[in-house]
Amino acid sequence: MLGRSRWALALVVSAATLVAAAVMLAVLWLSSDRTTAASMRLRGPLMGLELRVLSGNVTIVGGSRTGVQVTRSDHSVFGHGPYQRRSTRSGIVRITSRCPRLVVGSCASDYRVDVPNDVPISIRTERGDIRLDSYHGSADIATDGGAIDVEGYCGFVLGAASATGDITVASACSPERLLLRSDTGNVSATVPSGNYRVQAASSARTTVRGIVDDDGAPWAIQALSNTGRVDVSGRS
Amino acid sequence: MSALAGTLEGRLAPGQRLLGAARTALFLVIGVPLGVVYLVAVPIAALAGPEALQRLLEVERVLVNRLLCARIPAPPFTPDVAVDRRQIGFLVAKLPITVGAAVFCAVPAAVLAELVARAVQGLAGGGSYLGPWPLSTVVGLVLVALAVPALVLTVGALCGVASLIARVSRRGLRAPTTASATVREALAERLGDRALAIAYWLPEREEFVDERGDPVTLPGPGSAKAWTAVQHRGSRVAAIIHDAELQARPELVEAAAAGAVLALDNERLKADLHARLQELRASRRRIVEAIAEGRRQLERDLHDGVQQRLVSLSLDLQLLRGRTDDGSSLELLDATIANLGEALDELRDFARGIHPPMLSERGLHPALEALAQRSAVPVELELSVDGRLPREIESAGYFVVAEALTNVAKYARATHARVSASGAGGVLVLEIADDGVGGADPARGSGLRGLLDRVAALDGELTIDSPVGHGTRVRAVIPSTDPRA
After folding, report:
1. Dist CA B44 CA B59 (whole Å)
2. Nearest Cα residue in chain A from B127
3. Interface of A with B in 84-113 (CB under 8 A)
4. Are B417 and B408 in contact (CB under 8 A)?
């Protein structure tokens, strides 16, 4: 039998034990929190770039005249940071960044890649945003938990998919195919006005304006979202 | 159920605490959807009538009693179901209360769940990292050790919440007290004995009394009635006097008594208070009676003793005067006889002031008539007091009129007074009014103040209305039946 005072003592001791454990973990966390930066330049002929990032944001900047420049910023706690693997096959560079599974704290690797135009890119992240800035070429990008933002794009095929984030694309020229899909996020595409084969659908609001839906048009736009809003507009 | 009751009291084995925590968790899980149902159903039930609301309250009462062991008694069975705003408010507040309690308990519960999950992962050789350490068997064992205090906190939070909700529920679900829902009626209805009575035990007086404080004699063996003692924390509280047939099912009476023991204890305290008040009233009445009796005795002593001797002395002087021829002696005797006559008149007046013999001998009506005749101010009488009243009532009534008429003569500067007396309906009502200057203040004179006390001692009421310039009206209302009768 536990008396009232012994029970109260048990509660106090239990709370103190857990708080002590939490404080110890927090102190270790704060003291081990690190951010490091690294940069590398890829030389030689480049047929394509594949980037696989478990956790972290990716920014692609097009128009590089000096080859591919990769800048990485790694965030680690408790001495557990991301690890990168790079391989090249048939002129296609494949960079993979992974993190160990941490119960407490986070590990991430943010990438900025400067690429020449017309180098096809393929990017996948599990957790992180993807941004394309002034990129000219074909791109296939997808993220499970982040937003996709494309600005000043010009190329043949742009495929962008996000599970939960918004997709925003502003195209400087009419792409041959624009494939934008989000499960719960909003999808917004701004393209030069003209005739397009448009497929825009959503269970929420869908708006198409400033362009002409024409089945015989050479350019196609597919903008789909399950629960988010879809907005396709033409820019004169 | 008693295990959970113990949990609320805070003296339990760990297993029983776990059981109590599990019941509380179940209560919270059920409580959230039920709270939503109440939010929807209460307005509808309020439109449908108190019976519908009573059903919702009963659902909640049963749930709280079963899972949190709140021990809330069932509402009394009364023909007129009453549900007050407090109970309705409690039903509406069920959802936020339950959600708040669930959130409070969810914090330690979430910590516990996380620790257990990681411990299992570590023991299984998980491959993750906890802080700087890989989740290995050793770390898994450490997490198991940490899960124990998390479990203690979770159980503590659930038990604390159970205690709090039980307390709030007792207040929120308690049936409203109405005049028709007395403890006696509730027990009578529950036991199916309309003639059921309750006797409350007064330990200081060592006797049973009813709710008014009057002594009660418990039925003896062989009677058609029987009684069951009700005890609370080892002390006798009351006795339920019920049909003797109920003795065949003592568990029924005991269960009903156990459910009402707190209410019975409260009623016992009220009965005790009533008994004390009755005792106080009786004591005041006895004092008034004793004073009146003392005055009567004094008046008789004066009448039979000093007064008779003075009368006899006056007669002797008259005889002596008849036998004397001396002129100077005759003058002296005449003066002495006159003085003696005046002394006798003064003595009679004094004796009458103590207690008028006419009041004792013939009652209030003739005594008031005589009083009016002697008044210095013309008095109009309107009397409807037939027969005799209790002596202390007659005495109090007489002296109210006497004091009022004395004041009229002394201070009112009135030309006329009116006295009315009515003895109908078990109440003696006296009213003395004059057309004088008014402005009488009971606080300034001992006469009126004494009358106020005297009338109050007989459970009566004396009011004095005396606006300046508009005369004075004294009204006394005295119950003329003995409250003990």
Report:
1. 16
2. A101
3. 100-105
4. yes
Which tokens in the block code for residue A54? 């478990």
Residue B78 has pLDDT above 70, yes or no: no
pLDDT, residue B50, reads: 79
Q: Both tokens of residue B88?
A: 């309705």
Tokens representing residue B370 in the block: 């005589």
The residue in chain B having the minimum alpha-carbon distance to the alpha carbon of residue A78 is: B132
Q: How far apart are CA B1 and CA B65, in angstroms?
A: 9
CA–CA distance, B187 with B263 (Å, rounded to integer):
11
CB contact under 8 A, A78 and B149: no
Residue B358: which residues within 8 A CB-CB, separation 6 or more?
A: B366, B367, B370
Q: Do A18 and B14 touch (CB under 8 A)?
A: no
In whole angstroms, give the CA distance from residue A89 to residue A113: 19
Query: Cα–Cα distance between B160 and B17 in angstroms, integer?
Result: 11
Token pair, residue B332, equals 């002296």
- Tell me the residue type at B229: A
Residues B348-358 as b or e (16 or more Cβ within 10 Å = b): eeebbebbbbb
Phi-psi region of B71 (alpha: psi -120 to 50; beta: other; left: phi over 0): left
Query: Reduced to 3 DSSP states, what percent helix, strand and coil does chain B have, rounded to the nearest 5?
Result: 65, 15, 25
Residue of B nearest to A28 (CA): B131
Calculate how close chain B gets to A2, using CA atoms only, in Å: 5
Q: At what angle do helices B327-354 and B261-302 cross, to 10 degrees?
A: 170
Mark yes or no for CB contact A3/B11 under 8 Å: yes
- What is the token pair recorded at B423? 């003895």
Could you tell me if residue B381 is left (phi over 0), alpha (psi between -120 and 50 degrees) or otherwise beta? beta
Task: Report the complex ipTM.
Answer: 0.71
Question: Which stretches within B11-136 are classed as H helix?
Answer: 14-48, 50-68, 85-123
Kindly determine whether residue B156 and residue A14, on different chains, have CB atoms separated by under 8 Å: yes
DSSP state of B205: T
Chain A residues with CB-CB distance to B127 below 8 A:
101
Secondary structure of residue B65 in the 3-state scheme: helix
B353: which 2 tokens?
A: 């002031």
pTM above 0.90, yes or no: no
pLDDT in tens, A97-107: 999 988 888 89
